[in-house]
Amino acid sequence: MTVSYENSKIIFDGIKAAGIRTVSALPETWLGLLLQRAEDDPELELIQVAKEEEAIGVAAGAYFAGEPHLLLMQNHGFLAAINGIVSLAQLYSIPLCMLIALRGHWGEPYAWHTRGGIVTEGVLRALAIPFEYARDPDKVATQIRDAYTFSESSLSPVALLLTRDLMED
Amino acid sequence: MERAQCLELLYPELQDKLVVTIMGACAQELYDLGHRENFFYLQHAMGLASSIGLGLALHLPEERVVVLDGDGSVLMNLGTLTTLARYRPRNLLHIIFDNESLLSTGGFDSQTTSGITNLAAIARGAGIQHVATAGTLMEFGEAALEALERDDLSVIVAKVDAVGPDLYGMDLQLPENAFRFRRHILDRKRA
Ligand SMILES: Cc1ncc(C[n+]2csc(CCOP(=O)(O)OP(=O)(O)O)c2C)c(N)n1
Ligand SMILES: [Mg+2]
């Protein structure tokens, strides 16, 4: 199992095509190739945080500045960011477009990912965060654009879950 | 020294800056000096004031950003100091009012009480080049002026008394604050 080079490129191009200019992120295996591209591309600025909750603040700053921004994290980072999502983004009606690597789900061989994978969807529902699964490389660019559009119009956090089908070869 | 005195001294300088303040006492003291459209009050999410400041500073290189933080709040997000150091926005001043207390939630001691933890040392250790400590109003004023003139990321740890306002209340809903703060910034960008 290796991270899909092809699909990482498709997602990266989809982020750029959605008009995103800056990305805040915390690295993880599935996001590695994507983040490497962001680091190498002068058109997309990468802000790497030390913990995912910081990225909620950075994203709020980008929104106040009127700059199109997107967050990249794994689901355990989403779980680590929840108070920021609730008490900053949702409380103040600040949009967040989150691309979340859904580790610990169907086909997961590593035990340590599994609890987070099992609860992610339930937590998203409990928080009333709209989400979709990204499985198909032919659709993911549209899904990213739509996620961004919806976060901006609803002034809400929105999550696109990057699945194993998409991220691994 | 009281934080309210520091804010009063700083207030004229804040007219043309983007200001993000933590919740509770600090937010109220700033508001009581007179609300402005360039003030954002982070009324609950502890630790994220400086992260918002970083997002603003990196996306608005033409603006100057001032973050008004607290010991308890910054202790909840110490990683922020390392992220600030890494990206080193030259237009950001991060002021930490260390009253050695979780004042706004009943005045419990914090980890900085009795000088156990030294936030300025943590900021320096995080890699921030310009870190000042202020124990008197004079020192605070000098450090703030220096930082605002300096074209570099600066942190000031201001040791203040654990006292806050007697009365709380703002005529401003939270999303309203966010909407107006953003509009103010976009208007300035267009101008
Ligand atoms: C996650 C979280 N835990 C606890 C609280 C309760 N709380 C509200 S204000 C506060 C203390 C803030 O301390 P500090 O940043 O030092 O500011 P001060 O009130 O001393 O000015 C706490 C713990 C909270 N708002 N959020
Ligand atoms: Mg305090």
Annotated CATH topology of chain B? Rossmann fold
The structure class of chain A reads alpha/beta
Q: Give me the count of strands of chain B.
A: 8
Number of domains of chain A: 1
Strand order of the largest sheet of chain A: 2-1-3-4-6-5
Strand order of the largest sheet of chain B: 2-1-3-4-8-7
CATH architecture level-2 label of chain A: 3-Layer(aba) Sandwich
- What are the low-pLDDT stretches of chain A, counting only 5+ consecutive residues below 50? none
Protein described:
The complex is a heterodimer of chains A (169) and B (191). With 169 residues, chain A is an alpha/beta fold. Chain A is 51% helix and 18% strand. Chain A has eight helices and six strands, in the order αβαβαβααβαβαβα. Chain A has helices spanning 5-17, 32-40, 52-64, 75-80, 82-92, 111-126, 140-154, 164-167, and strands spanning 22-25, 45-48, 69-74, 96-101, 131-134, 157-162. In chain A, helix 7 links the parallel strand 5 (131-134) and strand 6. The radius of gyration of chain A is 14 Å and the shape is globular. Chain B has 191 residues and is α/β, with parallel strands linked by helices. Chain B is built from eight helices and eight strands. Chain B has helices spanning 3-10, 24-33, 49-59, 71-75, 79-87, 119-126, 137-149, 174-190; strands at 18-21, 39-41, 65-70, 92-98, 101-102, 108-109, 130-134, 154-159. A six-stranded parallel β-sheet of chain B has the order 2-1-3-4-8-7, sandwiched between helices. In chain B, helix 2 (24-33) links the parallel strand 1 (18-21) and strand 2 (39-41). Chain B is globular. The termini of chain B are far apart. The A-B interface holds A 22, 24, 45, 47-51, 53-67, 69, 83-84, 86-88, 91-94, 155 and B 18, 40, 42-60, 77, 79-80, 82-83, 86-87, 174-175, 177-179, 181-182, 185-186, 189. The complex binds thiamine diphosphate and magnesium ion. Thiamine diphosphate is lined by residues 22-26, 44, 46, 70-73, 99, 101-105, 110 of chain B. Thiamine diphosphate binds at residues 22-26, 44, 46, 70-73, 99, 101-105, 110 of chain B.
